[in-house]
Every structure is written in structure tokens, then in C-alpha cells.
Amino acid sequence: MSAARTRFTAPQRLLHWLMALCILAMLFIGVGMVSTITPAYLTLVQIHKPLGIAILILVVIRVALRLRYGAPALPADLPEPMKLAAHLSHLAFYALMIVMPLLGWAMLSAASYPVVLFAGFDLPSILPLNDRLHALLWDAHHYLAFVFFALILLHLAAALFHALVRHDGVFATMAPGFLSKAKRG
Amino acid sequence: MPEPNTHSPRSPIGSLILIGAVVAAGAAAFAYTAGWLSPNRLTPVKVVDALAPPGGPALGHRRNHAKGICFTGEFQANGSGTAISSAAVFATGTYPVIGRFNLATPMADAADGSVRVRGLGLQIAGPGGQVWRTAMITAPIFAVSTPQGFYALLQASGSKDPNAMKAFIGGHPEFLTFVHWATTAPWTDSYAEDRFNSLDSFIFTNAAGQSSAVRWSFIPAAPPVSITPADLAKRGPDYLETEIADRVAKAPQTWTLAVTVANPGDPTSDPTKAWPADRRVVTVGQLVVQKVEPEADGPCRDLNFDPTVLPAGMATSDDPFPAARSAAYAVSYDRRTSEAADYPHSTTGAKP
């Protein structure tokens, strides 16, 4: 039963760390690419699009795993506001992981840019050409990226707080195998 | 109830400092990547800001090549292009085109007789969504060798320092070749008589996997009729737009697409350096302009003629301009689409 589980399942942990890498890369590529006119711009844009779609596919699997296996319970002694913050931040993460790639795809569609995943393979357009819609989607994609990164920093701080200050086992629920074994031992 | 800290004899202060340091390092790395810690980085935003005329940019319009008129038509490929590129638009056939004749000025209301360089933005839609976009100009060579040089040119021409231009030319002598063309080449009295050149080099790859560096030009069928800028000015500020609309209404206008293939060693990274005239030229088809429409409601209005939108079989080369143009065009596009209210579609009301 999932109620007895003290850690996320191995596939959940694998996806968490894989997606953490992808999303961090995505956010750094995003702010990096829009700040340069060198040829790196094109390379970064070419990575940004397929990586975004990869994240969209991974998050679908991740949501399915979460619905199937759930999550280990938070420590009973965790103050209620912190529990609430944990739940809300996780909801926000899921929302952003789903919405950001869709916003990017929709934004390119509304601008009538071909959404090239790799040479010769384009995704279909999901919106008609529309300037106002493009402006709206572009703003959303842009500002939510900063919200996303801020949330990641908060998440990182909270994870380390659990690991280094509270020692309450929350970090171990998601830690890679070798780390959590070391903790228990 | 278990005490949270029973396992740790250590004070949490050190841990809290460590957590703060990790978060700060993450934020700093992000800020560095975004360029916030590098005031000297040449960003697309800086380039687009530098394009603005003294009175500010034309809101809702392209930040450069701001004045233009839309057209639709088709590209008739004769099949010869398949020898150099596997691009779908080169297979024998007819493909729909959306384009834009324009003036190389940041001012949307510039008088036609006041702008030396004209442009042509083009989208050719191949089968399977394989789109080719290109934006060309009438100059036979570009004004500067590098995007950094272009930014320096914008700064010098916008500077109040009387020596700024002299200093710029001192550092960018290639600019004089462009000035020579600009001051001596004849002007035409119609967009239909203009030759439009890619200037930038691209890499074409054919079905056999052979790659070649290329540049291309659209060569008009209409014979050029030269006119002095003063006489062009006398015909009215929007003469070119009304003329091309009238001319196309009477008969479709055509251009031949000629692709020039570089010899090994030809300069591909510098659009100020023309290739020798004896290079192999492949005539791949014809552009037929069939209908001209005002930009406010025209099909070209909300298209970004980003020169890096290329079908399979075409790629960018070591020419640094297409990447820089792509980055800057995106900023221009993002700004103007957010300013739609400043340049109303006539069908939505405000302006006739």
C-alpha cells in the first residue's frame, strides 16, 4: 500500500531527477538564447524546442505515475503552513511543467513560425496566426519562466532545509538510491 | 513526538548559511546566463533599440524595414534546384508565396524617394509544412562585415558626435564599398524593376548529401527604368506602393530565382565581399507576384521573414548575420505584436 511507502518509487525518483536536469537546462537555455545575437542563438533555439516537447511527454508519464503510486506522507510534525506550502508548490510545479511547453508551442503557432523539432520534422500548428494572441502567450511564457525558476530555488532551499536542518526524512523520499542508503546507514 | 534535530549535534546556522549560498549561487548563474551581469553583451534588445529613429520606433510596425506592402503569388520551381538542394520547394511544381516589398528604414511613414535600400521578404510554402523564408535587399553587398559592425554603424549614425561616423569608417573600411554603391548606382522607379539579393551565404545540401555554399538573387523580368531620387520624391511619398499595386493589377510581375554556388575558398562569412562573377549560377524557378494588398490587413503583416526559417536541404553557414537577424527579428516581432493597438487592422475598426 502506498500509505506505508517512505520513499517515492524508483521510476518516480528517476523521472524527478531527469526532469530536474531537463527543466534547469531549459530555463538556462531560454534566458541565454534571448540574450545573444551570436550563432549560439540558433543552436540554443534548436535545443529549446525539442527539449520542451520532451518535458511535455515526460510530465504526462510523471502525472500518471503520481496518480498511480501517490507520494509518501509528509512528517506528522511538519507545521501545517509548511505542509500547505509543500502541496501548493508541487501543484504549481505540475502546472508549470504542463503549461510551459504548451505555451511555447502555442506562441510559435500564433506567430505562424514552423515548430521544427529537427530538420524535416515539424509539429503541427495548434493556433491560427494572431498578433494579439501571440503577444499574450509570449508574455505568459516569458514571465512564467521566471516564476518557474524562482519556484525551483524555493524547492531547492526547502529540500536542503529538510535534509540539513530538520533531518526529517523528506529529502530521502526523493533522494537517489545511494544517498538515501547512506542516510539510513 | 520526535524532535526534528535529535540527530544533529550541529547548530543549524551553518546549514542555513549553506542553503542560502546554494540558492544565491543558482540565482547568480541564472542572472549571468541571462546577461544581467554582462552590460557589454550585445543582445538582440540592444540592436533593436539602436534601430529606433530619434522620435522613437513606429509602434506596431517592424523595427526596421518598417514601411512595406504585402503581396501574394506563387513560386514556380523548374526542378533544376534539386541538383543543389533537396528542399521541397525546389522540386518541379508551384508553391504558394506570401511576400512583402519594403523600404530599409525604421520609419513607417518614410517618403519612398528618401530610402536608398529596398527589400523583399518572402515565404515560399513547400509541401508538408516545409516553409522557406528569406529577406533580401537591393544592395549588391552588405554595409558591414559583422553584426557587431552593424550595431556600431547604428550607434555612429545615431550619434550627436560629428566625428562618430568618421571614427566608425576608420574601424570598418568595408563600409566605403557600400557607400560607393549607394551614391553611384541608379535608382529604379518600381519595386518590379529591382533585383533583390540574399547577401548572406547559406548551405544547400542535395539528396546525395553534397553540400555547397550559396547566395541567391531574385532578378526582375521588368527592365529597369532609372530615376533620380529627386524625381522619385516628386511623384509622391507612397509612389512605389501605388505603382506596384497598379502594375500587378494589370499583369502579374515575375522574378527569376538565381542561386550562385561558391567555389571552394570563396568568402562565405562576410556579406560585404562579393563572389567573382564567373561562379556557377543555377536558375531554379520563377517568383510570380499576382496580388498586392495593403499591409494593415495583408497576409505579410504578422509574418516574421526570419532568414533562418529554412526547409530541410537548406541550413545557415558560417555567415554570422542570419543568426543575429533571427534574434533581432524575434524581438521586433514580439514588440510589434504586443502593440497591435497602435497599428490597427482596418477591419477591426479604428483606422480606415
Automatic annotation (TrEMBL), chain A:
Enumerate the subcellular locations listed in this protein's record, separating them with semicolons: Cell membrane
| Domain of life of the organism encoding this protein | Bacteria
Cytochrome b561 bacterial/Ni-hydrogenase domain residues are 7-177
* Regions that span the bilayer: 14-41, 47-65, 91-121, 141-165
What keywords would UniProt list here?
Cell membrane, Electron transport, Heme, Iron, Membrane, Metal-binding, Transmembrane, Transmembrane helix, Transport
- GO aspect biological process, one term: respiratory electron transport chain
Q: Name one GO cellular component term.
A: plasma membrane
Q: Which SUPFAM superfamilies does the record match to this protein?
A: Transmembrane di-heme cytochromes (SSF81342)
Q: Does the keyword Zinc belong to this entry?
A: no
Q: What molecular function terms (GO) are annotated for this protein?
A: electron transfer activity; heme binding; metal ion binding
Instruction: Extract the InterPro entries matched here.
Output: Cyt_b561_bac/Ni-Hgenase, Cytochrome_b561_oxidase, Di-haem_cyt_TM
- Kindly give the Pfam families that the UniProt entry links to this protein: Ni_hydr_CYTB
Q: Which residues form a coiled coil?
A: none
Q: Which cofactor does it need?
A: heme b
Give membrane topology per the record: Multi-pass membrane protein
Family indicated by similarity? Belongs to the cytochrome b561 family.
Query: This protein is called what?
Result: Cytochrome b
TrEMBL record, chain B:
Q: What keywords does the record list, in alphabetical order?
A: Heme, Iron, Membrane, Metal-binding, Oxidoreductase, Peroxidase, Transmembrane, Transmembrane helix
Q: Where is the Catalase core domain?
A: 22-352
Which protein family is it in? Belongs to the catalase family.
Query: Which prosthetic group or cofactor does it need?
Result: heme
- Output the Gene Ontology cellular-component terms: cytoplasm
- What CDD domains has UniProt attached to this entry? srpA_like
Tell me which EC number(s) this protein carries. 1.11.1.-
Biological processes, Gene Ontology terms:
hydrogen peroxide catabolic process; response to hydrogen peroxide
The record's listing under InterPro entries reads: Catalase, Catalase_core, Catalase_sf, Catalase_SrpA-type_pred
* Annotated protein name in UniProt: Catalase-related peroxidase
Q: Which domain of life is it from?
A: Bacteria
The UniProt entry, under SUPFAM superfamilies, shows: Heme-dependent catalase-like
Keyword check for Iron:
yes
Q: What does this protein do?
A: Has an organic peroxide-dependent peroxidase activity.
What parts of the sequence cross the membrane? 12-32
Per its UniProt entry, what is the enzyme's top EC class, as one word? oxidoreductase
Q: Does the keyword Zinc-finger apply?
A: no
Q: What does the record give under GO molecular function?
A: catalase activity; heme binding; metal ion binding
Give the matching PANTHER family: CATALASE
Which positions are annotated as binding heme? 329
- Catalytic residues identified in the record: 65
